[in-house]
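Reviewers asked in the last cycle whether our approach scales beyond single polypeptides. To address this, we selected a multi-component target totalling 442 residues and predicted its structure end to end. The input consisted of the following lines:
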Amino acid sequence: MSDSTNVTPNNLDAFWMPFTANRQFKKAPRMFVAAKDMYYTTADGRKVLDATAGLWCVNAGHCRPKIVEAIRKQAGELDYAPAFQLAHPKAFELANRLVDIAPEGMNHVLYTNSGSESVETALKVALAYHRAKGEGSRFRLIGRERGYHGVNFGGISVGGIVANRKMFGTLLTGVDHLPHTHLPEKNAFTKGQPEHGGDLASELERIVTLHDPSTVAAVIVEPVAGSTGVLIPPKGYLKKLREICTKYGILLVFDEVITGYGRLGTPFAAQYYDVKPDIIITAKGLTNGVIPMGAVFVTSAIHDAFMSGPEHMIEFFHGYTYSGNPMASAAALATLDTYKEEGLLTRAAELAPYWEEQLHSLRDCPYVIDIRNTGLIGAIELEPIAGEPTKRAFTAFLKAYEDGLLIRTTGDIIALSPPLIISKSEIDELFEKLRKVLMNSI
Ligand SMILES: Cc1ncc(COP(=O)(O)O)c(C=O)c1O
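The resulting structure, written as structure tokens, was:
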């Protein structure tokens, strides 16, 4: 029964799967049993091209030797070290290496175990920072409609995906939301940053003055919104948010859980868009998705605000049993080595023009109402079937999987984010397979 190739619907009951149509899945399970570089292998022995880097996380491709070896070695050397009042050297080595690739001035790192925990950590840092500075009246957090910031209470409160919020009561108080920037009637089929919608950032000023700026702690946005179906920031939008935050002493938080570690062709989106936030949230690509780990970057100004009071006192009452865990740190260090040796943190910039051209070549396929892209991210928005939202894209997902291609769908949008090692011929394979699905199957 434990043989991974011998699973039948009869023994799939116990695992309540996350963000999954459980009943549909368990009738016709889709199981991976192995992976290498750009391909998964299914339980029935088929190869599936990974056009989603797992879940936006396997940026260096699968089962990369250096990462595998680092984890093996670490498991036999130091399995665990307490994270509170004690440490191990790799956690520090990693933090230094991370600071080196981060935007200038992001000099300190807090560790977590996931994107969701990174979000909670960032929001707590923001609130506590203002309090440490004597501005405890700043308790409000501002997110954005259609934003995704993980699934914990802070994250769903500032997040703006209705299905992820509506079942869970009152959420955090003191939260408001910017409007989203999806303007298909003006921006459909834009390559890169849309022309229209930059002015929507000015809504921040309206919201901030409505509540009084002295009550606002932080604004949190994904530089490129991923989970909602890939929304690229309109021209000027992020710079305007920065300006308004600076004007009113509000912290700007970039949730870079999907854009971090090379997705756009720079280590972080903050560098790509040349906008410096006060806090950067990361996870996923930090360890190539192999071991759960997140990292939250903060400026020296934020860090230093906490460094007062008696030296024997804890400065920030927050952390996790697994913060900076030795196995995760080893995996992250080997991941950074792999990124560096193979130039993966900037490779998306070289591939982006080819990627864009191939992606937009699907414009003539049936039901395609928008295509958008940046770096090695692409989205194809499909016209929903009347009365049956999400069904058309889900059908495409199932068909693509049968045809040996892993895509991700959200609503009626197909989102693509392949490992950054993808070759041009694999890009061709991806879009040939996807064209076939779109032309024949949906
Ligand atoms: C922007 C963003 N923030 C947070 C998260 C949550 O990360 P995790 O699933 O690791 O908790 C995600 C996951 O997709 C994300 O895309």
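The two ends are 36 Å apart (CA to CA). We regard this as preliminary and will revisit it once experimental data from Aim 1 are available.
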